[in-house]
Design goal:
161 residues, mainly beta, Jelly Rolls, five-stranded antiparallel sheet, 13 strands, 52% strand, binds zinc ion
């Protein structure tokens, strides 16, 4: 009996996110110490979820193909193929794909059990940085995610690039 696990990522079913595809490799192999997701994002699509932070969880994004822009409160970083971007715990960032081809990105986070996500975006109604939550809405026949302010319930688009 072996505990080794080999998987074919092309057989996995995507989770629903603003990005085209999110394959939860950690769930597929039963990893317990760290999280690993494989994202495919079309140009303009966000890798979820708006400006957010993980209070006790570090992340590394390794870009395999395409280009991703990571926005921080102070500046932004353009990260291309074979480059990686590290996000210390409790640091706010959001990311979206740019360019003319899809971005494929491996996102590694740890520890897996402390992956609480706090989404904080500027709310135009509250005129402040407020906590948001993703909700699904049907717009022009398409089911999409929007971010809803948890204080005033106003909603903002996730894809605005
Ligand atoms: Zn609000």
């Amino acid at each position: 009996m072996t505990d080794f696990t080999k998987i074919d990522t092309e057989t996995l079913t995507s989770s629903r996110t603003p990005a085209s595809e999110k394959l939860e490799l950690d769930e597929a192999v039963g990893a317990t110490a760290f999280g690993v997701n494989l994202f495919t994002a079309q140009p303009g699509e966000q890798l979820p979820w708006g400006f957010h932070r993980h209070p006790d969880h570090e992340e590394l994004f390794l870009v395999l193909e395409g280009t991703v822009v990571f926005e921080t409160p102070e500046t932004e970083y353009q990260v291309g193929a074979d480059e990686a971007f590290f996000v210390p715990k409790n640091h706010r960032q959001r990311a979206h794909a740019v360019g003319d081809k899809p971005a494929r990105v491996v996102a590694i986070g740890a520890p897996k059990t402390d992956d609480d996500t706090i989404i904080e975006e500027e709310c135009s109604e509250c005129d402040d940085l407020t906590r948001h939550q993703p909700v699904e809405r049907t717009i022009d026949g398409d089911t999409v995610f929007v971010l809803q302010c948890t204080i005033c319930d106003s909603e903002r688009q996730i894809d605005g690039f």
